[in-house]
Design goal:
The chain is α/β, with parallel strands linked by helices. The protein has 2 domains: about 140 residues, no CATH class; about 220 residues, Spore Coat Polysaccharide Biosynthesis Protein SpsA, Chain A, CATH 3.90.550.10. Helices cover about 50% and strands about 10% of the residues. The chain has an 8-stranded mixed beta sheet with strand order 3-2-1-4-7-6-8-5, with helices on both faces. The longest helix is centred in the C-terminal third of the chain and has 31 residues. The N and C termini lie far apart (about 60 Å).
Length: about 400
């Protein structure tokens, strides 16, 4: 009897995962990019913030590339927030047409760096853009943002596309990002909810960003908290697929594990922090906040869901040889979950490289499963993701 009810609980969870994945993936397929206005009444001034913590290897090219936008150069500034950069790097940055804002902290975090910069440049810009130190903006990035902001959108998440796909791990990492783009970005926007924030490739009304960020002291997952604060205040994040930033995908297993450890830890930290307010939002009909706080965060990472679902389905089928089980339902749930996942994979990813890369999935699943037992304290310390290069420039 205990095993039966345990199976019911597990099955209920995976039915939820299957339905969520399928519904949001279908919505993502039906998503239409927000229309760009044919005439834009004015060109606003933008600050492009690039937090750079020990990013000497990539920041020079990224900063230089960021100055090559189609948007008028006198209406945007590239601001490198230099934290623990080498003096030689600072010197080279000062030779570029960018602003260098140096910060020093006993314990560095992205939120601290951004808050210092936002306070220093307050009042000088209409909108604040945040990109990572390895990001390369599409040449029309700010041009499109200005168009959308002029239509009244106050918070925008652009598409983070893979800059590198050479290794199997980088390909799978890029694929994971694109699936998130469909489900958490396109799907959420198409359903009238709020897109998830990704930590970079995003733009906000400057005052809105300043007011929300100054109340934050996040160590990990600042983008999650920022999104929840914005949605709680009534501002929904728009996902704009034509606003593109190219992001470096991880190629090292160690970096991959540290990154996922940080992400998983922050996910469940904010689930705990906002659980009761999220449940309350459901009964008040505030579905955008309920989705961002509960429906998204209560799920395990996608690969873990898929791996565990396959395992439980196989056990159910095997068990049906000796006693009655719900194996037909398990098989149906598995099919629906994989269907939803497949719908969220962009056509460009299908091919031999993906097949070869998928051979690594069992090993990655095991590593991610073990990470669930190593999360203690992970959200209380800054886990830096190092970047190697920015050589694959897709922005022009």
């Amino acid at each position: 009897m205990i095993l039966f009810w345990l199976e019911i609980v597990l099955l209920t969870y995976f039915i939820y995962v299957a339905l969520y994945t399928l519904i949001f993936a279908i919505a993502g397929r039906l998503y239409k990019p927000p229309a760009l206005a044919s005439t834009v009444p004015k060109k606003s001034k933008f600050a492009v913030f690039i937090p750079a913590y020990k990013e000497d290897g990539v920041i020079l090219q990224v900063a230089e590339d960021a100055t090559h936008q189609t948007y008028p150069s006198d209406l945007y500034d590239v601001i490198v927030i230099a934290d623990s950069l080498k003096s030689s790097t600072i010197e080279k940055l000062n030779a570029l047409p960018v602003k260098v804002f140096e910060v020093t902290f006993e314990k560095s975090t992205k939120v601290k760096a951004l808050n210092k910069a936002l306070e220093h440049f307050k009042g000088a810009y209409h909108y604040g853009v945040i990109i990572d130190a390895d990001n390369l903006m599409d040449k029309n990035f700010i041009h499109h943002l200005n168009n959308l902001h002029s239509q009244g959108f106050q918070a925008i998440q652009g598409r983070r596309a893979a800059k590198n796909k050479e290794s199997s791990l980088a390909l799978l990492d890029g694929l994971s990002e694109e699936i998130n783009n469909y489900i958490l970005g396109k799907g959420s926007t198409a359903l009238g909810l709020s897109s998830a924030l990704k930590g970079s490739g995003m733009s906000f009304n400057y005052s809105l960003l300043y007011e929300q960020l100054k109340e934050m002291s996040s160590v990990g997952g600042f983008d999650r908290e920022l999104e929840l604060r914005l949605v709680n205040k009534g501002s929904r994040v728009l996902y704009a697929s034509q606003v593109i930033v190219y992001d470096e995908r991880v190629e090292s297993s160690e970096v991959f594990e540290n990154q996922r450890k940080r992400w998983i830890s922050s996910q469940y930290y904010y689930l705990k922090q906002y659980f009761f307010s999220g449940i309350g939002a459901f009964f008040k009909g505030r579905m955008a906040f309920f989705n961002s706080t509960i429906l998204r965060n209560i799920q395990l990472p996608r690969l873990l869901n898929l791996g565990l679902l396959v395992a439980f389905t196989a056990l159910s089928i095997l068990g049906s040889l000796w006693f009655p089980t719900l194996h037909i339902i398990w098989v149906t749930v598995t099919v629906l979950t994989f269907l939803g996942t497949l719908l969220a994979i962009p056509n460009e990813y299908y091919g031999k490289p993906l097949i070869y890369a998928m051979l690594k999935l069992p090993g990655i699943f095991i590593k991610m499963f073990l990470l669930l037992f190593k999360l203690r304290g992970a959200n209380k310390k800054f886990i830096h993701t190092p970047h190697s290069s920015s050589s694959n420039n897709n922005s022009n």
